[in-house]
Amino acid sequence: MHIYKDTIKSFVITLGVIVVLSLIAFLLGGWILSPRSKESSRATYKPKITYPNGAITLTYWRSVDGREVFDPILTQWKLAHPNVTIQITNIPYAQYSTKLAEAAASGKLPDLFMLRSDWLSRYMSYLSPAPRAVFTTDEYRKTFAPIIAHDLIRNEEIMAVSYGVPTLGLYYNTDMYAKAGIQAPPTSWQGLLDVNARLVSKSGAGIITSGVALGTANISSAASILPLLMMQNGAIMTNTPPTQATFQNPDSTKYASSSRALDFYTSFAKPGKSSYSWSDGFGDSTKAFMAGKTAMIIDYPYRYLAIKSQAPKLNFKMAKIPQVNGQNPINYSEYWAEGVSNKSSYPDVAWDFYNFMTSYEIMNLYSIPTMKPASRLDLAQSQQQNDIIGVFAEQVPTAQSYYKGDGTDSDNAMLAMINTSLAGFDPAIAVRIASEKVTSSIAQYPYR
Predict the structure, then answer these.
(1) What is the tens place of the pLDDT at every residue in 325-360?
(2) What are 57-95's pLDDT values in tens digits?
(3) What is the DSSP letter of 165?
(4) Which residues have a Cβ under 8 Å from the Cβ of 94 and sit 6 or more positions away?
(5) Which of 19, 110, 114, 427 might form a disulfide with 259, Cβ 3.0–4.6 angstroms?
(6) How many CB atoms lie within 10 A of CB 43?
(7) How far is CA 197 from the centre of its chain?
(8) Burial code of 373-411, b = ≥16 C-beta within 10 A, e = fewer?
(9) What is the DSSP secondary structure assignment for residue 49, as one 8-state letter?
């Protein structure tokens, strides 16, 4: 009996040890073998300043993004800083520029506000730069896309941040591709010409179905597409630092980069050209795409939201923008930046809020629903795996733009250049006129 009890006791102890060791092995093995998400491997937000006591309210003006995007983000902010309220006011885009200018002139800017990246020079005297405790220039350049550091660091001071870098991409109708036997979207402009020829259908001199919506000034994002083509073709848009437009100049081999790019762009709207595939008779290019009247458009990633909302049954995908030189890709972006008013009573707190917003996890919460690929390079790299935003995220590291002075005037100069060429003028004349207008635009808001 004594031997039996000892046997039972030994068995129980042995069994217990085995169970404990098995559990440890299971947990350790699970930890070692389980996939690591990139989100979990990034450090979470950490405050970089000492917060004052007492209730603080920071006013924040925004446009283009709805409040619903920020509600879950601000919930997390409140958990970290229950005494700091971020009071967001959404202003319609059509009114935003005017209201912001009026507030600046009257000394009544909010604590935080969004501004287009090409507005930075005009608001420089109203901005409070980032304290080094929050961002250093070295850290900033390593963290964010080159275009962000290039545009938003002035005189070695960080004047603003950005949450996302939307780039131009190719939208294509997968049903129309399949019907034409096209297996994949083009990666070069020559490839786009080939695909376009297979997709466009004509009746005499008229177009029944468009291949790609390009060629006129009425195309959505035409004021971005044309400078993209010019830059890919070798045009230098301005001098450095930007005081005047230089895209009218040929390159060192006398190649007229901008004129050739303009001629290529407008060829899609000229009946005598083999690339002819678009007429303004189709109406709005985005609506034509949604209606299946054109197989391809070029636009920014956030256009996806409108297409899915208004044409939920449309079968389409997005691809990277075609390139002139695939080994040295050039992509084009126009994006919003976020600044802090120098009239704010709590500029350090405001900047630490941007530290929070640009942290890996929080930026992802903003980036995905707004379809604006992350400005953080590590997050943009992770987003490349996303089925929807991925192709645009791949283009973030090579995104470029140019200094416009007054963005509206410079964009209008690009559109006028298209119309001048379509009216029958020599492309070189159209380019020279546009260059003079962009130079005047830069003079309105000198780069500083």
Answers:
(1) 999 999 999 999 999 999 999 999 999 999 999 999
(2) 999 999 988 788 999 999 999 999 999 999 999 999 999
(3) -
(4) none
(5) 427
(6) 8
(7) 30
(8) bbbbbebbebbeeeeebbbbbbbbebbbbbbbbbbebbb
(9) S
How many whole angstroms separate alpha carbon 185 and alpha carbon 195? 8
Q: Where are the alpha helices (DSSP H) in 34-185?
A: 38-41, 67-80, 93-105, 120-123, 137-143, 146-152, 174-179
H or E segment and range at residue 399: strand 399-400
Is pTM beyond 0.85? Reply is: yes
**Mean pLDDT in each 10-residue stretch from start to end of the chain (448 residues)?**
34 37 33 33 79 97 89 95 97 96 97 96 97 97 98 97 98 98 98 98 91 97 98 97 96 90 98 95 97 98 97 98 97 98 98 98 96 97 96 98 96 98 96 98 96
Q: Is the peptide bond before 241 cis (omega within 30 degrees of 0)?
A: yes
- Residue listed under structure tokens 């979207």: 185
